[in-house]
Amino acid sequence: MKRTEVPLQFTNKGEKLFGVLHLPSSSGKYPCVVMCHGFTGHKAEDHFLFTKAARKLAEQGIAAFRFDFRGSGDSEGTFDRMTVGTEISDAAEAIKFIKTHRNIKKASIGVLGLSMGGFVAAYICGNVPGVRAAVLWSAVGQYKKVFGKNLKVNFRAKNLKAKDVGGVSVGKGFFKAGIWYDGLNLISINEFSGPLLIVHSDNDKAVPFSDAELYYKTSGSGIKELRKIKSGGHTYGSGGAEPKVIEYTAWWFKKHLSARR
């Protein structure tokens, strides 16, 4: 199927966010998946994982909108002001924005989140009306536990401070917001009744597989599946995992977004 890739921008809180909309063609209306990248990630993601997934979705007749959160990639804002709350706000605005596009079926919106973007997607599912299907890749389930370990931060400390992580400054607001939102993602996913696919590698060193099991256990009573990936790593760049994850995800969205209600 012929593909069309269109650069787009929208605004949130007075700042510009940049993204790319992948369409099956330049005419007609299509279901759309909004893609939420991970912590320190961007709209292409590691080894172009999001780009490849978006193109595969377009080949299957599903539009995909991948964008940079504020403070990441090409979008305006600074990383030290990024929190899970700002990313939730950005994702909600991205959904609102893409629904207005002439080629998008506003009643057929899905979300895909990777890592911290998975935490964002889980929260969005139960709090933004109109999300019809969701996929979580390597999603952070227990915010304080995961980031406390990976960033070596004591969330119980009275004076949380900014921290340098691989050359970028993570503001203290990131940690404070994490305390408030931790657990709300699980409440939100419990309230989501749409089809939910949870994908996670058995050897993920950044986010444990137990977080995927927690999402599966606490999610709502709708159609759901937990798919364990063997030796794929956090972003499915090893063990031949990438094509399998992309293929199955595309199939999931095609089945649950394209089908008539």
Which helices and strands, and how do they pair?
Blueprint: E1 4-12, E2 15-23, E3 30-36, H1 49-59, E4 63-67, H2 84-98, E5 104-114, H3 116-127, E6 131-137, H4 143-150, E7 163-165, E8 168-170, H5 172-181, H6 184-191, E9 196-201, H7 209-218, E10 224-229, H8 241-257
Parallel strand pairs: 3-4, 3-5, 5-6, 6-9, 9-10
Antiparallel strand pairs: 1-2, 2-4, 7-8
What does this structure look like?
The chain is an alpha/beta fold and 261 residues long. 35% of the residues lie in helices and 25% in strands. It has helices spanning 49-59, 84-98, 116-127, 143-150, 172-181, 184-191, 209-218, 241-257; strands spanning 4-12, 15-23, 30-36, 63-67, 104-114, 131-137, 163-165, 168-170, 196-201, 224-229.
Residue stretches low in confidence (pLDDT < 50, at least 5 long) are none
What is the H/E order? EEEHEHEHEHEEHHEHEH
> Would you tell me the overall average pLDDT?
95
Question: What's the overall geometry?
Answer: globular
The CATH class assignment is Alpha Beta
Please indicate the percent range of residues in DSSP E strands (runs of 2 or more): 25-35%
Approximately how much helix is present in the residues? 25-40%
Query: What topology, given as strand order, has the largest sheet?
Result: 1-2-4-3-5-6-9-10
Q: From the 3D coordinates, which CATH architecture would you assign?
A: 3-Layer(aba) Sandwich
Largest sheet: 8 strands, mixed
Number of domains: 1
Going by helix content, strand content and strand pairing, the class is alpha/beta
Gyration radius, in Å: 17 Å
Question: Please, how many helices?
Answer: 8
Q: Gap between N and C termini, in Å?
A: 24 Å
CATH superfamily: Alpha/Beta hydrolase fold, catalytic domain
Strand segment tally: 10
